[in-house]
Design goal:
About 20% of the residues lie in helices and about 30% in strands. It is globular. The longest helix is centred in the middle third of the chain and has 13 residues, at about 100-115. It has one domain: Glutaconate Coenzyme A-transferase (3-Layer(aba) Sandwich), CATH 3.40.1080.10. It contains eight helices and 14 strands.
Length: about 250
């Protein structure tokens, strides 16, 4: 199709990825995770990558498969969660981790996509987020090997704000419910989460879509100008969605 951004496979969409590349990855927990692209990235064998995502998947799932294979060198995230291997690597000094407030992470990604180099926010003022000292990397004995540096704090109208830098990455991997051949995307319910923001931050954004269709401009959540490549999932791939914590009512 002329002018189409549709790529035949996830492997082909990731063919130019190299060791040490940085990735913004959409999703929250297991909601809206680009699992097919993550698996293709794992199969490509690339290593030493940096990941920016709300968290790093779960043990054995999503970004957790790259983590377990020691392919990830650095993570920028909001929390570690229940991923035991993520916690183990961080505390053992095997992984560099930048922890940042969730809202600040979202805005850092959005700012990167909008060409805004930095912004001031009240989130984190008076804490190690602003004052420095949060461990970027631990030593094997549990001490802090590399502390996070302090950030600039300024006062506006009698209130203090901390300066946060925008985030841009080499690639972004996202998942959408629907997309068209031009890369316009629609996200379903809570899976919208970090996906549009991650997509904006990537220099080369690759979207896996559950359905390729024509879209009404008024329903588009993310315009195709932010998306370089589109991978259409099979029905089986589209239906394969994990549940991080299953909660049921007693019978």
């Amino acid at each position: 199709m002329r002018g189409s951004k549709v790529i035949a496979s996830a492997a082909e969409a990731l063919s130019d990825v190299r060791d040490g590349a940085s990735f913004a990855v959409g999703g929250f927990g297991l909601s809206g995770i680009p699992n097919v692209l993550i698996r293709a990235l794992y199969d490509s064998g690339v290593t030493g990558i940096s990941v920016v995502s709300n968290n790093c998947g779960v043990d054995g799932g999503a970004l957790g498969i790259l983590l377990a294979a020691r392919r990830i060198a650095r993570v920028t995230a909001s929390y570690i969660g229940d991923n035991k291997e993520f916690a183990r690597q961080y505390l053992a000094g095997e992984l560099e981790v930048e922890l940042t407030p969730q809202g600040s992470l979202a805005e850092r990604l959005r700012a990167g996509g909008c060409g805004i180099p930095a912004f001031y926010t009240a989130a984190g003022v008076g804490t190690p987020v602003a004052d420095g000292g949060l461990p970027l990397r631990h030593a094997p004995d549990g001490s802090i090997a590399v502390p996070a540096p302090p950030k600039e704090v300024r006062e506006f109208d009698g209130r203090e704000y901390v300066l946060e830098r925008a985030i841009t990455t080499d690639f972004a991997l996202v998942r959408a419910a629907r997309g068209d051949r031009h890369g316009n995307l629609v996200f379903a319910r809570s899976s919208r989460n970090f996906n549009p923001l991650a997509a904006m931050a990537g220099r080369v954004t690759i979207a896996e879509v559950e359905e390729l269709t024509e879209l009404d401009p008024d329903e588009v959540h993310l315009p195709g100008v932010f998306v370089r490549r589109v991978v259409v999932l099979t029905p089986e791939q589209a239906a394969d969605k994990g549940i991080e914590k299953r909660t049921v009512r007693p019978s």
